Amino acid sequence: MSGLAYQIVEELKQRILSGAISPGAKLPTEYSLVEEFGVSRTVVREAVSQLQAAGLVETFQGRGSYVLELPERTSGLREVRSHRDVLELMDFRIGVESEAAGLAASRRTAHQLKGIERALDDFRRVGDDPARSVEADFSFHLKVAVASGNRFYSDLINDLGPMMIMLPRTRLNPVYQMDDPDHLTRVVHEHENIHAAIARSDPEAARAATRVHLSNTRRRLTNG
Fold this sequence. Notes:
Layout: H1 3-18, H2 30-37, H3 41-53, E1 57-60, E2 64-67, H4 83-107, H5 110-126, H6 130-147, H7 151-160, H8 163-166, H9 183-199, H10 203-223
Antiparallel strand pairs: 1-2
Helix pairs in contact: 1-3, 2-3, 4-6, 4-9, 4-10, 5-6, 5-9, 6-7, 9-10
InterPro entries: GntR_C, TF_FadR/GntR_C, Tscrpt_reg_HTH_GntR, WH-like_DNA-bd_sf, WH_DNA-bd_sf
Domain HTH gntR-type: 2-70
Protein name: FadR/GntR family transcriptional regulator
């Protein structure tokens, strides 16, 4: 598979797995994908063929390609019930996402960087809406993982899903409420530091910024 086709596959795959394109929905037309990604029809057809091979879409002659129902997730997040579980999940994310950000700084494409920027803008705009801020927060982390160029990072973050953001906010224990009015401002600033490091292609700074962001989240959970 060509590099251009791979980029389209990863982008459409994230849209499908995140629910942006829901099961039963039709993929964008070949023409619209050519326009969006600035590639040839051959590259688009190669990408759609790969999505079909992966069991994500089914193509019908003369009708286009449609998203298939996704299998149920099997990640261990259902077992995250205690305060200790949440902290251990944060430890896990610190290791995985810091390295993904470092790779993103080395490998990201201009298109992927735009995706990270859009996710950051969305988070700034909807941050005071709890439900929408969870999706925007998750989208930012997912876009960084996609930009790593390694599908295992993006697949893992997709498997965790928005629950990895929601967990610290949906328990009855007051430590999870995070209702400090300055919290959003701090998180936006931390996201901006990650984005800036990736934008200037600085892997070590991207790793450090991600580690600081997630470590700060863990510390807020630990200190209440």
